[in-house]
């Protein structure tokens, strides 16, 4: 409740500010000292009060300050008895005056806890509703929606009047509705209207708000709220179904990504490549190293580290693959079960090598801006990271398909795997093709590592988590059949996700495995098996 | 005869194929093949590669299920399409493969031992009579195929021709009603070929035999009825001379 | 006469093996009990336990060799049968704790008490009764192997596919046993055993007895395996391994032959597991982990597949390496050593240690009758 | 060979330790007498290496520093390192080897409960000392084991109290998410009982278990989101273990669950784990420990300094289990010095009551139940992978072996001084 009180203060201050907007701009009177002293006290209680005061001060730098505070960019300096902040670019300012200044050496960031973060956001919300930056306006609107402070109503109205961006408008309207419906003093009619407005576009948050209110509400209002709750819930259910499918698809794409490489080394060449997981792992470490370089050399280009890591990972793991093929596997063709043992040995060696080189602990691979966060698509929560992975996987898949079908190398690969002797007699350098094929498979595994570094540990154990699943995908899809791999990956992914809500994560997986075993009984050669005399012997 | 509805008694043939067809992924390997083999008859099957010779063997021995047609055995009493390899072997059809497949790591004698007629169940193999067969039984058979002196050698060490013979020996040990022999003389010297022909004729005294072979001299030496297959069905049938002089045969197979 | 046939059946190498085992069986207990610590002849209890553990692994290896080396069934799930046998024994041992658990609950094992189970799950009934437990040691793995094998062999799942679904099998069990809701103690598994048939498992005497029993079990396993592989049945197994469809055309029901050997092998693995648990004092789901099963396969490969003696030898060698390499400065290299060994064996000596030995010997004597040759 | 490598390191490390003697690089002179061996039983390979390797290193550092100070009882300390390779039976085997073969005077090791359970019989049989440095589910007190990590009442319950407080955001609705093994199971049982006792409705508690190394969190995270939108302030208590955390937090970040909406408090996520994650999206999420690297006091700063020097890595982080080893080691040293021998029984009997400074400025004490007193700290994740301490207990909390919140254990108590019993039943007035 204290929050509301102070927000009301802000609201008034803001209205004044708006009236005298041009005036306020030049006016640069320093913040009252007691604000600074309160911050210097560095106790959550004082900080809270101070935040309120800053917001209410109507000083032009208030918004920047609070923004800075939220991002741990607001500093107190005991020596200078002063308050400073940096802007996004790292430029220092004296918070009291808002003039540029150097941040003293002993300055330490003002500590927050979650409750204070809430307060800051609420305050910022009302302050930045009119910000020129649409992203900020959106965030502002959302935080107003959360705080539902009646005093912010005029600001919202005004903002709405100017707003052109439909998406933001919508949020503004929701926020407005939220304020009205939450305001017990507002006329019932308008509150009911607000309720149905929320029902129109509301999502989880809207639901939360309505549920909360339906408790206190009475009479018609209550019934309207109840019905709006149902409308939203119905919508949510449909979305839930869609959501599950999406999760399935994205899980499927991860499985596929992990399995494609194996579909080459195992599916096409018949090498039971137990070191496949480690190829993925190496790919992830390549990503890590690339990012390290970028962090050190050109941090401003960090977002580019992933795109650049992709070819690197492909080349490096590809080379490792070629080495393994030349050094071990080429001696074992026609003895698949031996390749299993040898590659298992290789996988142990690679794991331990990475462990002693990079250390056993996880390595940080940060998400580039375009892969973090999420967006709403026809009501589905879709995270950019996952979306990119799905897209990326499909690109890799079809690129590979093209390579196998359309390029001479691909042609030779298929020739060699189908009839080695014939191919050789036609002058194909089979040994070279073998090496290339295995290298290709490994390289693709490496690429998978780049993507998986975004959602999983980058640790020496990374590969272990995927190897078995990958084999299941390939076998289920039918060895030597890329399309089969694609379909089986998505089938397993979606099936897994459909089971998870009922059976739970573990049991779900177990059920899938058992079904898989039974399926192999029905079709010993997977979904898409070749028929005829050729494959029977 | 292709219009007859088959069944017990309608045919006295040991083997009776009628209107048999099978296709792999769209490719028709056998189309409407009909063939009859009388009790105690020997038949040579010739034909170019891909004529469906081996596929026909696969169908008879239950390795491949036909899409259509009847495959009857032993005077039409048994519908072979309803049994699997093991069962068909027990019914009395023995097969020698194109590429000789013997149990390389077993001794020659053991190869024959495994083929010997008798109960095939795992438990009879563990405790039963199989463990006490009289060696002379085996030796007799090995003697027939001139492998007696090699009885202790691992089959893997035998020459190509000897392997062929070992396979025939295994057929003899099985003592089936019908023998399917796929290219028995491939990679044999002329002398060996002659001997094989004699051996087969001897076998034919108390077994029905189908021989698939390219070597026309050998076929001639067998002095039996010949069937020429082409694209999965019978192109021509009759004495070796009749078939050899058949124009269609000449153009698709023997060549000019 | 009979002895003659026996000797012939075991053949030279087997006799050496049995002799060595007998030696161990006699000397180790004496060294441990008769000689005081400090005496040069003393065998520490630690060593007894360690050897006992190796022997159970050797048993698992022999079982696996029976299926893989002689019938070509490469099971990547034998760890599962081993673990099932182990759990059966572990459950018996848990029930023996009785009221001596930390909570002093008369019936429930500790982990059930703090996951507040109200009464004993049905799966646990009867395990306080030793014969029943022993029966389960055989039945649990046996039945699983039977059902699985019956499905797989009937539908002719072979080679790689079979290996992979056996792996799926053990992986599924691995996940399942981790779940605490399964009522098998979840990740912590079964541990803190008190006594077996009234003897304290910690007691020196008990340990030695268990060791001797393990020796006997391994010998028994070996002899049975020899009898099997040198019977006609064994010959058929090898025939199946070398040319499966040819064997079919001879009229053998390959699936039955495979099923019998698979189930038998699974049961032996179960017994090995049952002997393993009281000696190491814990059984936990990690025994189901696919890596463990693969490792067991590697033991066989190292020793020489298709030579029962070799399998046992391999189990010994690899596990001794493990013990040796995981101490002191070597610790950070042992995975390199293990991995390197796998690669080396598959590349340099595809027939394992014994195979290598034979090749050297083979130059002089004719190898036809040697089992090493049979395994080719 | 072993000794070789370590004494060589010894010189170096001790020098870094900054002891006066070493500054000149002169070896300290040890009185006659064989070195005292200390066992280190942590996985250096396999899945647990991720957490345990650093504990091995910290032990090596402590031993070097002790040697630099002239060793113990004038004898040199010698570390015996073994690698149980995350393989539980191997833990038992290695423990046996350490005790009966290397004759160690004490062993520092284990991380997972199962590894501890697997070595327990060995330590009892051969009567030796194990220092166990990791927070665990409690429900155990053995004569041969000293638990320097947190018992549930030293981590879980204070954390929940904090989230219920005003500063914690007055959470009313709870998600208890954990990896499916004993520690989370027990902890969540305790918490559930505790929450219900605090008047939280049953339908306001959601419990969820996932397998080890669970990597696909989409469904669960979105379920949490849904559960959190029932109009009541919701908090997540995470007992998710090691590897699974990274994907979990990455998913939280991606699905935009902000600490201000649904705070997550974790019991198994420390500086080590955060090192593997980009923490910017996670700012404000919480962890409950008895130590954070960011704690400001001279003792801690000195420790961090020497640790970074020892690892020759300026980014090296410290964490709670490391502190536990520091405390445990110092307690052991004090106890040995007090009785003037490494005789196992004497040391075991002396340890209770021994005090040693912890790194958060207090002095921890070994209790008769073989657990120690510790402060409880709540830290908030910072953008740089460190924690801000936002709350901490006034004074040290004594570790409680047998929680009062579970049926089976509420009547039990452990006391190795007077009762000489690890599970004394106060109702039946008898041991076990």
Structure description:
The complex is a heterotetramer of chains A (537), B (256), C (376) and D (432). Chain A has 537 residues and is mainly α. Chain A has two domains: 2-211, no CATH class; 242-536, ABC transporter involved in vitamin B12 uptake, BtuC, CATH 1.10.3470. Helices cover 70% and strands 4% of the residues of chain A. Chain A contains 23 helices and six strands. In chain A, the strands form two sheets. In chain A, strands 3-2-1-4 form a four-stranded antiparallel beta sheet. Chain A is globular, with a radius of gyration of 30 Å. Chain A starts with a helix and ends with a helix. The model of chain A is unreliable at 15-26 and 531-537 (pLDDT under 50). Chain C is built from 15 helices and four strands. The radius of gyration of chain C is 21 Å and the shape is globular. The two termini of chain C are 31 Å apart. Chain D has 432 residues and is of the alpha/beta class. Chain D contains 13 helices and 19 strands. Chain D has a seven-stranded mixed beta sheet with strand order 7-6-8-9-10-14-15, sandwiched between helices. Chains in contact: A-B, A-C, A-D, B-C, C-D. At the A-B interface, loops of A face helix 1 of B.
Which value, in Å, is the CA radius of gyration of chain C? 21 Å
Q: How would you sum up the global shape of chain D? A: globular
Poorly predicted regions of chain D? 1-26
- CATH superfamily descriptor of the largest domain in chain D: Response regulator
Please give a quick description of this structure.
Chain C contains 15 helices and four strands. Chain C is mainly alpha-helical and 376 residues long. Chain C has one domain.
Produce the secondary structure layout:
The complex is a heterotetramer of chains A (537), B (256), C (376) and D (432).
Chain B: E1 15-24, E2 27-37, E3 42-46, H1 53-60, E4 68-73, E5 78-79, H2 85-91, E6 93-96, H3 108-115, H4 122-126, H5 135-144, H6 160-174, E7 178-182, H7 190-204, E8 208-212, H8 216-222, E9 225-230, E10 233-238, H9 240-245, H10 247-254
Parallel strand pairs in B: 3-8, 3-9, 6-7, 7-8
Antiparallel strand pairs in B: 1-2, 1-4, 4-5, 9-10
Helix pairs in contact in B: 3-6, 5-6, 7-8
Chain C: H1 2-33, H2 45-71, H3 78-97, H4 110-114, H5 130-154, H6 159-178, E1 190-191, E2 195-196, E3 199-200, H7 204-230, H8 232-242, H9 244-249, H10 254-280, E4 282-283, H11 290-303, H12 308-325, H13 334-348, H14 352-362, H15 371-374
Antiparallel strand pairs in C: 1-4, 2-3
Helix pairs in contact in C: 1-7, 2-7, 2-10, 2-11, 2-12, 3-5, 3-10, 5-10, 7-8, 7-10, 11-12, 11-14
Chain D: H1 2-17, H2 20-23, E1 36-41, H3 49-68, E2 77-82, H4 88-101, E3 106-109, H5 113-126, E4 130-132, E5 145-147, H6 156-164, E6 173-179, H7 182-197, E7 205-210, H8 218-227, E8 234-239, H9 245-254, E9 264-266, H10 271-274, E10 286-289, H11 298-311, H12 320-339, H13 344-350, E11 355-357, E12 363-365, E13 373-374, E14 377-381, E15 387-392, E16 397-398, E17 412-415, E18 421-425, E19 430-431
Parallel strand pairs in D: 1-2, 1-3, 3-4, 4-5, 6-7, 6-8, 8-9, 9-10
Antiparallel strand pairs in D: 10-14, 11-12, 13-16, 14-15, 17-18, 18-19
